[in-house]
Amino acid sequence: MKRINTLLMLALLTSPIAACASESVNHSGQASKHSVMAVGHSLHSGVKVASTAVAAPVAIVGSASVAAGSVLTESAKSISYKSHGVKSKKAKGKAALEVSETTVTVGPTPNQAIQRSSQ
Amino acid sequence: MVPYRMFFSLLFIMLCSSYAVAGSRADVVAKYEPKRIAQFAKRVEKYAAARGARAFIIARLGRPEDELPKGVRYTHTAVAIYSNIKLSNGEEVKGYAIHNLYQLPTQPERSYLLTDYPMDFFWGAQELKAGIVIPSEEIQSRLIDLIDSGASKSLHNPKYSLISNPLTQQYQNCTEYTLDLLNAAIYQTTDIDQLKANTSAYFEPQKLRMSRLKISLGALFRKEIVTKDHNGRPRMATFGSIERYLQRYDLVQHSTTLQESA
């Protein structure tokens, strides 16, 4: 029994390694998220959620991509959020980019989509 | 015989519970209210957008911070690209798409590539905290080209190890993939032999500060923990080591930690 206890202790020691440098778990295809968020509708307090079809990088930032100062008002120094250890250079004078207020998510996994559509 | 059966049963339960904490289950309940996650995710997007970032390195905390080994601040790292996002309803919006390497839920020792969005990225976070490194404009442009052209996919190695050695090609995790993308952008090549030679010469990995016993036992019981690509103490790519690497060669425009206050 002593040996078993020793082995159990050793086994317990292994679990922290799961918290190592890299935990690459995908949260995007989870049924719970999609059922909670009800894609296409609003989360409470006006957070609009939409699922995506495709995303393409914006390679050239022209005037159309620049929101006239609207997002500049969003700062990490806002009272609700804090920022630590800011290291910055050449950041001044950078043109801000426009970001939609819509919260975008990937759609459900194919099997979840099939289940949902057949319900 | 019975005690050994008991041992293996308990061991199985413990390892399963450890997976549950890591979020490898297909259906994980978020720690935070969806509204809070959405607000935080949008703040991160706006923070990067306000600085004109078209591409940046993003990291999240998928584990309680006090469980992480010393020197490790985040558990998942990826590349965010400013994008035109076409929604399923036909509408087009602008925001960040995040290019990830994820473990397969059913085969944790294998990985796949997935593009998701900040809300997805932070869904299972244990803390609403984001690591942000905005590289120089030149690196940003090259990262965008690399991903837009699809050349980034050739750098993916589906053999996953939680503690993969970034100096070798045998295994890869999300952070090593991010480092490979950055180096491909820096050196403008996807020749992995060349990239690993350069990584060995200039990148300083983070030493895993954990007892050898724990590491060996982890490798014994979990398929996604592999030590055979390491000589001696494992060393890994982490968000912090990538940040230091870019800073050392003057390739960082801006870096910060963004956190929801208590």
Largest sheet of chain A: 3 strands, mixed
* Uncertain regions spanning at least 5 consecutive residues of chain B: 12-27
One letter per element, helices H and strands E, the order of chain A comes to: HHEEEEH
Give the number of DSSP strands of chain B. Answer: 8
Largest interface, Cβ cutoff 8 Å: A-B, 81 and 119 residues
- Overall pLDDT confidence of chain B: 88
Report the C-alpha radius of gyration of chain B, rounded. Answer: 19 Å
Strand order of the largest sheet of chain B: 4-3-2-1-5-8
Any idea what the CATH architecture of chain B is? Alpha-Beta Complex
**Helical proportion of chain A, percent range:** 10-25%
Strand content range of chain B:
15-25%
Name of the top-level CATH class of chain B: Alpha Beta
Sequence of secondary-structure elements of chain B: HHEEEEHEHHHEHEHE
Percent of residues in helices of chain B: 25-40%
Total helices of chain B: the number is 8
Q: What is the total domain count of chain B?
A: 1
* C-alpha geometry of chain A: extended
CATH topology of chain B: endopeptidase fold (from Nostoc punctiforme)
CATH superfamily of chain B: endopeptidase domain like (from Nostoc punctiforme)
Describe this structure in words.
The complex is a heterodimer of chains A (119) and B (262). Helices cover 24% and strands 20% of the residues of chain A. Chain A has 119 residues and is of the alpha+beta class. Chain A has a three-stranded mixed β-sheet, with no helix packed on it. In chain A, a hairpin with a 3-residue loop joins strand 1 and strand 2. Chain A is extended and about 55 Å long. With 262 residues, chain B is an alpha+beta fold. Chain B has a single domain (29-259), classed as endopeptidase fold (from Nostoc punctiforme). Chain B is 38% helix and 23% strand. Chain B contains eight helices and eight strands; from the N terminus they run ααββββαβαααβαβαβ. In chain B, the strands form two sheets. Chain B has a six-stranded antiparallel β-sheet, sandwiched between helices. A two-stranded antiparallel ribbon of chain B has the order 6-7. In chain B, strand 2 (76-87) and strand 3 form a beta hairpin. Chain B is globular and about 50 Å long. The termini of chain B are far apart. Chains A and B meet through helix 1, helix 2, strand 2, strand 3 and strand 4 of A and helix 1, helix 2, strand 2, strand 3 and strand 4 of B. Strand 3 of chain A pairs antiparallel with strand 8 (252-260) of chain B, so a sheet runs across the interface.
